[in-house]
Amino acid sequence: MFAISLISIYDGIATNLAQNGDYNLAFEYYNKALEVAEYNQNVSEERKITLLINMGMAYSRIGKFDDAYIVTSDIKKLPRHPLNFREKQAHMSKMGIPKNKISNKKNLGKLSLISETFQRCYLEDKSTDAYFSKLIN
Description:
Elements lengths: L1 H18 L3 H16 L6 H17 L3 H9 L11 H10 L18 H10 L3 H11 L1
């Protein structure tokens, strides 16, 4: 229980720092949360995935799409999200992601499930598709 709470605290601090533009410190806290998650067997895969997605989103906000891809590429399964697309779109818009960057496409190529989802939600423009294609081919 303590590990899960510590991960939530680190993740919350990191997300807050990223939203306020302090990405270097945010990544330090994301990495602290990852360390705790990796050394504790009581931490669910879903919690680890959420942490990696948050970290990937922060990388994408500063244009480090290669780091976002690397962080999210090892995730094997995606947790079911309780929100529908319209609710997710509203939430992502509040987080500062432009609506024209949010897509509900189902398939963007031969990407892992999480990378496909990440690309679909945050990296819709054509140059990004080409960028990801180069990475996997």
